[in-house]
Amino acid sequence: MTRRTNPDTQRAIDAVRAYDRIMANGNPYANQIVLFVAEGVWHAQYTPLNPERRKILDAFGTDTLPTPYMAQMPPQTVLDTIRRRNPGLVVGLR
Q: pTM for the whole thing?
């Protein structure tokens, strides 16, 4: 019997694998936001090469901000929403 994975979970797994491949080959994306869940909330981390990172650090003292999305929100929904709100940036999942 083959075990099926929830489609949202599979997309998240695929995104993590893609992220790992990118990082293993050197990060070609200067403008990147990485999404992850911590403490029950989705967070957005601005990568070191992202030009917006300095503004975020100056304003909030960190390069990682909580989003308004709880951990129960499907990964693909959070990813799509953050991508729409940040055109020109590469948004991925960790």
A: 0.67
